[in-house]
Task: inverse folding
């Protein structure tokens, strides 16, 4: 189970729609205990593959390094990331499964159709099995 506030979801939707027709991406900051993942902050990142097309993303590694440095000494960690699928469903793509190097990461994928927010889902991706499971996400106020 993932808990995400309405404000954070709106922030992700804003990133996804303003980056359209490119993919947006960013990091999810929060903490995990047992099977509960609480997201406390959304950190938009530079998509370093943006110029390669509208169907791929890679979070700028420097953005993540800087963020992890800032989180040192706090109870928060990088627990996942988000990206958008312009004119595509929110299902993880083949490229996403290929890129799923960190099995503990939460993937939040936003579908943007013709520039407008469509829907989103949260997943865990298993690169070895080339499978994904959908995680429940609760929006809190
Ligand atoms: Zn994707």
Result:
């Amino acid at each position: 189970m993932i808990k995400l506030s309405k404000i954070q979801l709106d922030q992700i939707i804003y990133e996804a729609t303003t980056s359209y027709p490119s993919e947006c991406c960013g990091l999810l900051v929060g903490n995990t205990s047992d099977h509960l993942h609480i997201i406390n902050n959304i950190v938009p990142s530079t998509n370093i593959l943006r110029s390669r097309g509208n169907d791929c993303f890679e979070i700028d590694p420097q953005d993540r390094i800087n963020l992890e440095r800032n989180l040192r000494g706090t109870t928060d960690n990088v627990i996942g990331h988000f990206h958008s699928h312009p004119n595509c469903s929110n299902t993880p793509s083949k490229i996403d499964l290929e890129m799923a190097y960190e099995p503990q990461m939460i993937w939040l994928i936003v579908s943007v159709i013709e520039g407008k927010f469509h829907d989103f889902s949260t997943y865990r991706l298993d690169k070895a099995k080339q499978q994904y499971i959908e995680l429940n996400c609760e929006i809190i106020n």
Summary: Strands lie at 2-5, 25-33, 36-45, 77-86, 106-113, 116-126, 131-135, 137-140. The mean pLDDT is 94. Residues 2-140 form a domain with the Cytidine Deaminase; domain 2 fold (CATH 3.40.140.10). The longest strand covers residues 116-126.
